[in-house]
Amino acid sequence: MSASIDRMNPPALPDAGKVGYSQISIVHPGPLAFVSGQVAWRADSAPVPTSLAGQTAIVVENLQGALDALQATTDDIVQMRIYITDLRDETQEIAMGGILRFLNGAQPSLTGIGVDALAGPDLQIEVEMVVQVAA
Question: Residue 59 — very low, low, confident or very high, per pLDDT cuts 50/70/90?
Fold first, then answer.
C-alpha cells in the first residue's frame, strides 16, 4: 500500500529523525491495524534465544510476518512501542539496531519503555505496532 502518513520533527522538539524515528505521525483517513506485542516466540515453538540480539531478530521476523499478512510495508507503520527488560544504553543499542534495520529508513513514531517483566520469564523484548492498511 502507498502510505499516506506525514512525519514531523518540529523544531520545538528534539530531532528524532537523527536517530531513526519521528516525533509526530499524522495518518490520513484509512483503516488502522493494531498489531499485538510480538516477542521471541515462533510458530513452531522453537526455544527462545538467551541473547537480546537473538530475541530481537525473532521479534523482527514476527513483525515482518504481521506486515506481510496486512499487505503493508514498514512505511505503513504509524507507531511502535518497544518494551525491554533491563533497559540500559547497551540493551537499547542492541534492540534499536535490529529495529532500525527492520525499519529500513521508515520513521514511525516510536516509544521505548523499560519494564520489569514480559509474558514469560525468558523474554527480554516485545514490540507492538499500529499500521495503516489499505481500505
Answer: very high
